[in-house]
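**Sequence, C-alpha cells**
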Amino acid sequence: MAAGPSTSNSDDTLTDWLILHHAPGIGAVTIHQLLERYSGPAAALHAAAQQDLGLDPATLRFLRQPDRERIECDLSWAEQPGNHIITCRDPAYPALLLQIADPPPLLYVLGNVGILGQLQLAMVGSRNPTTSGQRTATEFARHLALSGLTITSGLALGIDAASHRGTLDAGKPTIAVMGTGLDRVYPSRHRELAHAIAEHGALVSEFPTGTVPRPENFPRRNRIISGLSLGTLVVEAAIRSGSLITARCAGEQGREVFAIPGSIHNPLARGCHALIRQGAKLVETAQDVIDELGALAGVCTPPGSQAGELARAPTLELAADYLQLLDSVGYDPTSVDALVETSGLTPAEVSSMLLQLEMSGYVASSAGGMYNRLK
C-alpha cells in the first residue's frame, strides 16, 4: 500500500503517521506507547496540540508544527510505482516483525510488499569473508531458497551480498533491509544488485527518504533483519562483527540462531564459535537448517538433492600429482612455499597446478598469495 489511509481508523492518514515518525526525540517504543494511549496518530497529534504529553519540548514543537517539506518528500516517494509505505496497523505489515519489542511504526518498501509475509531466514556475516565463506553463503542461500525459505539480509559487502546473489541465482526472491532511506543505495557498488532485489523481491527500511548512512542506523536495521525471520544464520564473523548484533537480536526475539563453524586458525570463524558456545545451533549443511525449521516453516529438501547436501561442482578425475598437491592444501590458507615443501613438487609445477585446481573449483586463492581447499 502506498499513500493514503493506512489503518482501520479513517481519521488517521499517512501524513499523520509520518509526522509522528519524523518527530525528533522519539523512537519506535515511544510512538507505540502514544498509539496505545491515544488509539492512533491523529488522536495523538490532537492531544499534543492540547497538552505536553511528557515529551521533550523540541518533539512537541515538531508535532504541533511539523516540517511539511520532509513529510512531502516521503509522500511523493510513495506515489512512485513500486514504492510503498506501510504502517504497523496495515494488514500487509509482516506478522513476525510485529511480535518484536520495538517494531518499526512504518516500513518503506520498494518492490513486492507481499513477500514480507513469507517465511524468511536471515543470513549475515563478515563484510570481508574468505573465498570459501563467500562460496558457502552463495550455496546455502541457493539451497535454502529452493527449499521454500525467503532469504533476508542487509545488502552489505561480503556475506550479505553473496546470500542475496545466491538466492537470485536460484530464481527466487530475496529481501534486503537497508540502513538508509530507500532513495539511495549503500554501498553504492551494490546499486545493480539492489535493483535486481527490488525487481524480484523487496528493499525495506524504517528510515525516511533522504536518510544517509550513519553508524548508528545499522544496529537498528539488524533488529529488523532478525525480526522478519524465523531464524538467523551466521556464515562467517569475527568476534566483533556487526552480524553478531543480528544474532543477539534474534536470540532476544525468541528466534533460532544458527552458526557455521570454521577453522580454529581463521579469525572469521571466532564469532561463529562464540555463538555456538552460547547455544547457537551448529550448521554443517543447509539441510541442518531445514531439519530445524522444517516442521515450523513447512520447508523441504529441494527435488534432486541428496541427503540435503549442498549442490557442488562435479568432481573431476585428477592425476596422481594433482591429488598429491591437493592433499597438501589445507582448508586453512596455505602459502605456495609451504606447498612446495610439503608436496615435493617444484615451485613452477605448484604454481601451474594451483591455477588448474582453482579453475576446476578445488582450491581458492586469497590475499597474500595464499590458497585454501574447497573440496
Remarks:
- DSSP finds 16 helices and twelve strands in the chain.
- The chain has three domains: 1-73, 114-297, 320-373.
